[in-house]
Amino acid sequence: EDKVVQSPLSLVVHEGDTVTLNCSYEVTNFRSLLWYKQEKKAPTFLFMLTSSGIEKKSGRLSSILDKKELSSILNITATQTGDSAIYLCAVDNNAGNMLTFGGGTRLMVKP
Amino acid sequence: EPEVTQTPSHQVTQMGQEVILRCVPISNHLYFYWYRQILGQKVEFLVSFYNNEISEKSEIFDDQFSVERPDGSNFTLKIRSTKLEDSAMYFCASKFRTSSYEQYFGPGTRLTVT
Predict the structure, then answer these.
(1) Interchain contact A25–B (C-beta under 8 A)
(2) Is B31 in contact with B99 (CB distance < 8 Å)?
(3) Strand ranges of the sheet holding B5-7, from the earlier edge strand across to the other edge
(4) What is the pLDDT of residues A7-65, one digit of tens each?
(5) Does A42 sit within 8 Å of B99, measured CB to CB?
(6) Is the dihedral of CA B99, B104, B106, B112 positive or negative?
């Protein structure tokens, strides 16, 4: 059975801190790993990673995939209160017919 | 920017009733999905749909569930006889094509079965 595990479960930081969120996976027919941000409702897309070692970056957020270690990290630098959300990791397998999600990391950024 | 839309945003129904959740995927997308998220739990895959047929479904997607693309824009999820445990947030998602493209999610329909 495919499995995606995220850590930590939750995290409380202060504005300006840097955070690292972890995702590990055990899936068959790995295609890509995706990070989503879930605030109130719909997960909103952040990054899709397919190749090991290539960092994807968007503003203060960055992510990298390690296929050897079957893991990925999501970094957020200079955190802001607007970064408070649940961050979801998901793996796309089996020719893209489904995403398997981890349980998420709940990030709270205090002013 | 194109987005996935879903209606209604909240549906309350009695146990045993049929419900239809509606989605309008992004217009040039070819792959469609339903996921659900029970409060406090993981987002779970239900079904994927491509070329007017189901391409993958999970164990959750039993005979009580069905999907349909009745026209060129809508994508629906029907639950024939709702149970209390069907209470969840249901997300529709769509993807352009192939595994190189990310899935975009709609805002969800919160289904409450009483």
Answers:
(1) no
(2) no
(3) B5-7, B19-24, B75-79, B65-68
(4) 999 999 999 999 999 999 998 888 889 999 999 878 999 999 988 888 999 999 999 99
(5) no
(6) positive
